[in-house]
């Protein structure tokens, strides 16, 4: 597995962990978030290698810092799905990918979508891949035309 894939998978797991704590980005509870991320890193120390850590930390910080904007895009482009009703795995995979669309111009959008779909197939349900692909493709297509 490549370093970026491993960083994305670890970021998914950390964001899922944060999501179970019902983090609300509008409340700005940075200290609690930092403690939870630190706890995740301690528990996964062997898997967060020096090669993986920078991109992993960039993804975590980027999603947290941009979560309101990211969640707005996901809500806008996920037809008939409230964000709160989405499976947590799918929601956090799409948060990572949307962050990459917004802030990582060096990563081709097709690579971001493919990585998200593959991670969705691995960690989500059998419906995760098509669902993730559809929402991310709408974001990519419609946001790039704006």
Beta fraction: under 5%
- CATH class categorisation: Mainly Alpha
Radius of gyration: 14 Å
Major β-sheet annotation: none
Shape: globular
How large is the count of helical segments? 7
Helical content (DSSP H or I, runs of 4+):
over 70%
Count the strands? Answer: 0
- The sequence of SSEs as H and E is HHHHHHH
Mean pLDDT level: 91
CATH superfamily: NusB-like
Low-confidence stretches: none
**How is the CATH topology named?**
N-utilizing Substance Protein B Homolog, Chain A
Structural account:
This protein has helices at residues 3-19, 30-43, 53-65, 67-77, 88-103, 109-123, 128-144. It is globular. The chain starts with a helix and ends with a helix. It has a single domain (3-144), classed as N-utilizing Substance Protein B Homolog, Chain A, CATH 1.10.940. Helix 5 runs antiparallel to helix 6 (109-123). The chain has 146 residues and is mostly helical. The longest helix has 17 residues, at 3-19. The protein contains seven helices and no strands. The model has no long low-confidence stretch (mean pLDDT 91). It is 71% helix and 0% strand.
């Amino acid at each position: 597995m490549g370093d970026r894939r491993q960083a994305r998978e670890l970021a998914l797991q950390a964001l899922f962990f944060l999501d179970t704590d019902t983090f609300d980005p509008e409340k700005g509870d940075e200290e609690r978030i930092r403690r939870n991320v630190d706890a995740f890193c301690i528990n996964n120390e062997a898997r967060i290698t020096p090669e993986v850590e920078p991109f992993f930390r960039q993804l975590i910080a980027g999603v947290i810092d941009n979560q309101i904007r990211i969640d707005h895009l996901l809500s806008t482009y996920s037809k008939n799905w409230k964000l709160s009703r989405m499976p947590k795995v799918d929601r956090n995979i799409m948060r990572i990918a949307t962050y990459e669309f917004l802030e990582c111009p060096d990563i081709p959008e097709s690579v971001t979508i493919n990585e998200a779909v593959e991670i969705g197939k691995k960690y989500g349900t059998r419906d995760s891949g098509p669902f993730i692909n559809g929402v991310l493709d709408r974001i990519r297509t419609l946001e790039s035309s704006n």
